[in-house]
């Protein structure tokens, strides 16, 4: 797959009508200003934090993405992490590697009958709720920005109920100024019992140091992380890196390098669905409208 530098992109902006990005190129106001003919910006996948959508809208530029494309892959990954933690696959595997036979101390917990809290009930949160329903879980969902959500697969709940009842918590939130470090030390203190904590959304939604401390204080029983505050983690600062080492060394942790939404099936669906949206948008425009930027937000 060809890769283009920011300088190469800049040189082509003068004639661009559309830009499609994944997660490496920041589309800020300065870039948008150098593209006078720009009509749309497409993002394969969900996160829009690298695109200045407000400025694009002010210029009459449509922003599109395809969060429904990788929701199944991410939901399966989150479910896999939950099962890994409850059934203690990691500690059991390491025990056998060491030649031990520790059946009683490595007995699993069942997922059936557990109460799972899902914060952020969009495409991925709903997909996870659908899978959890097959396990006989009680699923509590919270989404600040929706009146109805979850497609009948969960109970729409206040955060207070999730704090009170959740055994497992899974985050499915975009990264915004409001969600940054939502899961911090005070957040974990509010749960009435220790939880298994999963984050497959965006790393900075959770405070890495707070996760490490909550694990060590047993406010968190176990943690599954697919996303991190700094990616790749080799670029993390000293404090974050030290906290990550504490998390990784904990026997009840499972980490993956932001791979939850990268299945071949997800890549195909994200591209296909975004292409459909772009084609449908163009089909709605008259020949006259094609000559000028159109605000369809």
Instruction: Assess the beta-strand content as a share of residues.
Output: 5-15%
Rg computed from alpha carbons, rounded to a whole number of angstroms: 21 Å
Distance between the termini: 31 Å
* Count of β-strands: 10
Précis, in short:
This protein is α/β, with parallel strands linked by helices. It has eleven helices and ten strands.
Give a description of the structure.
- Helix 9 (208-216) runs parallel beside helix 10 (238-249).
- With 297 residues, the chain is α/β, with parallel strands linked by helices.
- It contains 11 helices and 10 strands.
- The longest helix has 20 residues, at 264-283.
- 36% of the residues are buried.
- The strands form 2 sheets. A 7-stranded parallel β-sheet has the order 6-5-4-7-8-9-10, with helices on both faces.
- It folds into 2 domains: 6-68 and 264-291, NAD(P)-binding Rossmann-like Domain (Rossmann fold, 3-Layer(aba) Sandwich), CATH 3.40.50.720; 71-255, 3-Layer(aba) Sandwich (Rossmann fold), CATH 3.40.50.720.
- It is 36% helix and 14% strand.
